[in-house]
Amino acid sequence: MSGETTYFGTVYPAECDHMGHLNVAHYVAKFDAASWNFFFNFGVTRETMDGGNYAVAAVEQKIAYKRELMPGDVIEVRSRMLEVQEKAIRFIHEMIHRESGQIAATSEYVTVCLDRTQRKARPYPEAVLALARSLIANQK
Description:
single chain; about 25% helix; alpha+beta; six-stranded antiparallel beta sheet; Thiol Ester Dehydrase, Chain A; 3 helices; elongated
């Protein structure tokens, strides 16, 4: 996958489970950090969400674990836009073991834009949609 780098990190011993590898909770945390960096790139920030009275919520997440990560492993997450709809955005992350270049895990998301007052789906702001669509166009 091409995509843009949205996270760099290291696996720390405290993030590992009794089997000695990265615990699933920490895969999710690293993917979550990558998600917010990815969203920043098309205009979704705390400030824009507060000002526009909207929020972003993940409604679907599919994770595939492909390679163990151990303490000291350095990782990179690359993200790519898959689909942009008026109220929903679908994207994927690949977590890469930097030393080997192997994919350690993937996580595909569907997110929706929520009206904070009504607590229901609403369209993403036009500026966000335009930037998100431009990411798809620039990936090809």
